[in-house]
Specification:
Layout: H1 14-22, E1 29-31, H2 38-43, H3 50-54, H4 59-67, H5 81-91, H6 99-112, H7 123-134, H8 141-147, E2 150-154, H9 164-171, E3 178-180, H10 186-189, H11 196-207, H12 214-230, E4 235-240, H13 250-261, H14 268-289, E5 292-297, E6 299-300, H15 305-311, E7 319-320, H16 326-338, E8 344-349, H17 355-361, E9 374-376, H18 386-399, H19 419-437, H20 445-463
Parallel strand pairs: 1-2, 2-3, 4-5, 5-8, 8-9
Antiparallel strand pairs: 6-7
Amino acid sequence: MKVFLNDHFLLNTNTAIELYENVGGNLPIFDFHCHLSPQEVWENKPYENITQLWLGGDHYKWRAMRMHGIGERYITGDAEDWDKFAAWAETMPHLIGNPLYHWAHMELKMFFGIEKILSPETAQEIYDECNEKLSRHEFKPRSFIEKSNVKFIGTTDDPISELEFHQLLKQDESFQITIAPTFRPDGALFVERPDFKSWLQKLEKVSKINVNSIESLIKALKQRVNYFHENGGRGSDHDIQKMVYVDTTLEEADIIFKKRMNDEQLSTEELTAYRSFLLKELGKMYAEKQWVMQLHMGAMRNNNTKMKELIGTDIGFDSIGETNLAEGLSSFLDALDQDGSLPRTVLFNLNPKDNAILAGMIGNFFEEGIPGKVQFGSGWWFNDHIDGMEKQMKELANVGLLSHFVGMLTDSRSFLSYARHDYFRRILCNILGDWTEQGLMPNDKELREQMVRNIGYYNAEKYFAKR
């Protein structure tokens, strides 16, 4: 019987153990998509306690606590920090089989040197030990990043952001990790949102362009793309809840835009046409700058209306949507490709039934000299567990080229989430070790070690390289 979370955790063969110990466990991290706050990195303020570091903004933990029956006061409410931590500790024993159980204990071990199992019985002891360590200088945001051997962080940023903290970090010679902005233009694409017009006013202010037509909106967005590029931006990210694409002319999109500016109701067809047009125009901008475009597809957001009205949006009431994305995605990528404007693109699916669709789709579009121009992104959100990661990599290997895969990303707001990269690398090493011992791939030490190096770090570094 194996000991929980021992040095060989998730490694089931001698080949996997050797592969992880020689290569996988020592690689740096290229975290090309996350939701860390550049302001928090710049300020580098210590956390008062483990609750603020661990539970603040963590939708995964909030969701689990709610399912356990914990009251909202102990999740996003005004309960004392100790009481919130105690509620999380009460939830923990019920998370067996959930990656949160692994991640939480990996983070305690990796960052705090704590190997105790978190439960109601150990909660106070662990809380006190973490808090004592958090009072030390080496337990600040930057230290967590440096200890994790992170080389690159891609944050997620609104086009209206002035990127002041990215600029300050770039000028800080004491901090050598690259933190680059990622262009996330949800405000422009979700034209039906109540705050669209107020967001547009902010865009006008930062771009210094009066936006009164679809052409001027494109001009303002292009100005922001240029601004992000000047400040180190090399990628974009998009929330694509429904991947439907229809060819739409400038004139048609302008009519829809002006209807919205006049507060007229837009039909589903008009919203689809508007988003199709604007997303294609954005894709052209990214291709011109040689950026990477990321499409996160299939989330069904803010399902609980009562809680949305009570505490706001995007606070853990999202789930997997019923997707039908094959035709829309193919049409969108093909439209850009026909114009010679398809950027390097990473496709993420939230519904696991789309694994085979994306694994097959990426082979339809290519460019000489760019291995894996269109990528099938790692298991995302509801899929970043053992089964989800294994299925994603095996589906990719079945019909594509696993060796060109750009690997893992945290997609997290927590400075401790870099433990997830170790989780991923152990799973990767275990897959290759298992294939080797079953005779499904040659017993070539150099070959499998190079695959782990590339998938674990170097493919992503090359893919997102400045061009």
